[in-house]
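TICKET #2291
ISSUE: user wants both folds in one file
ATTACHMENT 1:
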Amino acid sequence: MRSEKVSALSAAWQPDRVALIEFASKQRIEDWLSSEEYRAIEGLRLSSVRPAPLLSKANRPDEDRRPVTRVLTAEVFRDHKNKRQNRFAVKAWAFFIQPYMRGVRMAKILIIGAGGVGGVVAHKCAQVAKEAGIFEWITLASRTLSRCTDVARSVKARVGVDIDTAQVDANNVSELCQLIRQVKPDLVCNLALPYQDLPIMDACLKCGVHYLDTANYEPLDTAKFEYKWQWAYADRFREAGLTALLGSGFDPGVTNVFAAWALKHELDEIHVLDIIDCNAGDHGQPFATNFNPEINIREVTAPGRYWERDEWVETDPLAWSMNYDFPDGIGSRKCYLMYHEELESLVRNLKGIRRARFWMTFSDNYLNHLKVLGNVGMTRIDPVRFQGQEIVPIQFLSALLPAPSSLGPLTKGKTCIGDVMRGIKDGRKKTVYVYNICDHEACYAEVGSQAISYTTGVPAMIGAKMIAEGAWRKPGVWNMEQFDPDPFMADLNVYGLPWQCVEVK
């Protein structure tokens, strides 16, 4: 296709020239991606071109061969002065370009869950729909329809995009299937409670749609953080030709991708991994949590656990701590060792890790309140009888605490989440720190949510985009570090979560 027949979506983007190559079939694309020839030039392609959205006439990549106008992604050569470099890049890359290669097409997405994270995902998907056309239509569903309606109004006001809303009980597979068949999404983005992961996965299998979540399944009656229940679905998703992407949040999610990216570009081996999560924000409330109180308190009060010499070592809750000096003016903060689910998948999928730990900061005020609540039984997850009926104390407490979505206009300060990784590069010891800094007030100005919801919601959108574009579409059940980290890392910089990588001496 000649470049003069292609129009850029943004008037500010005026490429000097564009290479756009159409493949005859999806199989041809997949064969090329797995070839030795492609692997030999992949690095050259990534360093010499950049992707950008285009409008073009093309055919559908599926059985429907009717001509349609589609949004594609082409790659533009960066250096237009160095003709020799350009000629070499063209020669190496002339028959391979982004749009058709991975079967990009506009996708319908169903978002389940209209809390703080669900609201962010809806806003960010709408942004991508408006700017690049990846998401053809967005539906937001929740048990409480009014929450969806409020988010839809905000999306319309902030982004100028209409989204559909629906009511659904995420525990009810038949009800989920009814909604999925009505909406006909290509992908379900699960931002409901972790207890609801399995029913939603069941519904996706029954209806033949891809699946994504941001946190692993947890049994309702036990604070157990394991992937075994979801990994058990791998054969069923693979046989159905569907992708299930697990933990596409920040931690888990981006922290997994940081490690995979470092292993690809900065280290030959990772021996020691420390994931450090700092929320240096202040909401001014006596006691509140920045995401679902029930999930937050279950996580914090659970025993700590870390990986050491091929086995798990358990500690008492918050028994270990350290001080860490965070960048960008945040300074020294006390961090507590916890267990987080990404550790389980990382030590399984990234070979060579000898020690893996997760750390999180908490204020003294938070910990003191939590201790008191625990002492009077309000953090219990087992039911107790009260006035003739059963209640779960932690669920009652969750209803009394400020809703995390209400903290957006109140929270000031920054978050810093990243991976400190010590290992080997070219035979010498090397330590790198890959991290993101996020500002609470900036997040609220953009999408009406504080940074904790934002840092989870943006990666969920990017994960959905990776599946829609085909870059991370592969039948089975997968964790984030099992895919190529480069396109995801690039999108973090584009969609609001810029990252840094520094060598630690």
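ATTACHMENT 2:
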Amino acid sequence: MRPGIVKSENCVLDLPLLSAFAIFDIKIIKTLEIMKVKYRFLIAALCMASIANAMTLNEAKKLFLKGEYEKVLPTFKVYAQKYPGNANYNQWYGVCLFETGKVEESKKYLEYADSKGIAEAARYMAQIKLNELDYTAASDYIDEFEDRIDNDDSKISEKALAMKERIKRAVFMLNSVEKIQVIDSLIVDKDRFFRHYKIAPEAGTLNTADILPYEKADSSTMVYMPESKSRMIWSMPDSTGTLHLMETYKLYDGKWDKYSPLDDQLNDGGDTNYPFLMADGATLYYACNGENSIGGYDIFMTRKNFGSDDYLQPQNLGMPYNSPYDDYMLVIDEMTNVGWWATDRNQIPGKVTIYVFIPNNVRENYDRENENISSLASLRSIKDTWKEGADYSEILNEIAQLGMEEETQKADFIFYVNNDTRYTTYEDFNSSEARSLMQRLMERKAWLNKVSEKLADLRSQFNKGNTQVKTQLSTEILRLERTLVKSTEEMQQLENDIRAAELPTLK
């Protein structure tokens, strides 16, 4: 037997090798012990940092009262889950969930807080039930809220009264839901949502506030211009911050006249915004969140009385156009016989749904006894609004083609970031670096177009010229051809750099 080999019944052990493994194991153990100590210190440090950076309950309360719901949501989540029996923690966390768009998740906590007699919980539950078109439950909750509040607090009492009036209006609207065909819906970013409207030039244009010749309005302001480009209608805040519709006309010298209020009666005690004027110059659609709204913003319609130069009593369009959420920017394109409007119903903050529908020449309402009336009123399924056997593909294709034509006409460029994402304006870019590179690319293309035109001219002269002319031109032609090749390569690299800068922002 070889020295160092130990035999047993089941195996053979090499002692030197075993010793090596044993030494290795000892080293691993020692290393692990050192790592444990290090990680203990690291974990302790992280915990201390977490405690140091943690928001106190009092700090969270202060931010809560300021409406900073997103910031304080994690803090109240910890308290609500750690102390599930605390009504206040449930209330605060439930409100934060509701205000950040997590309505379904908020119910559990608000219902518990309500069961413990928290007044604000009842008010929020009333709003939830109103949004669900459950008006009986909404009324019960708002009655609870009223019973719990201090009757001496007039502001809170006004809130309760306003909620009751909204419920009454909603019940009335539910009895006269218009029968329309909603043929498509788009979920888009709220920021400049109207860029997704595909309307014919005859319907006018929807523009940002940048087009205004006066002081800049709020960034959310939309400016409507008819096809003639001779008029503008938009909203502007007064000294109290309340939005009013304004208008101005283009003068004979091409300048814009002083702007003036459209009609004060359109405000209805709230903000007015998102105007659209039909081609007749008289029929006006707009949004208002005043006394006759069930939302947020509701969509209204009025007509101008040319005899007195004012507007008739505005009419709330009712359901399904309006809801307890914000509904606005109704546009009717008479060329395609298609209408559009936007809403944030059932959407997370920062997103809106755009509905595309076929307008009626004469209003027709659903039977109020229809068992699906609540669903039809809230547009839970747009397919439920379709006529049996109807095919809307031709209309949708027409809209799509119109959108492509308009996009091409208005486009600063057409640039594909990837196979699914196409940009046509500098505003489309999220990355400032990509935007700057795109500007360089467009400048390079403009210069290169001039080079190409010059090269084409020289080639034409070369083909028509004699031997002497050809000799004179050949050197310049070769130089421009080399420039053209080199610049084309540089532009390709610029395009790659643009994509490299922009693509990470799309994730």
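RESOLUTION: both attachments delivered.
EXTRA DETAIL ON ATTACHMENT 2: The first helix runs from residue 15 to 53.
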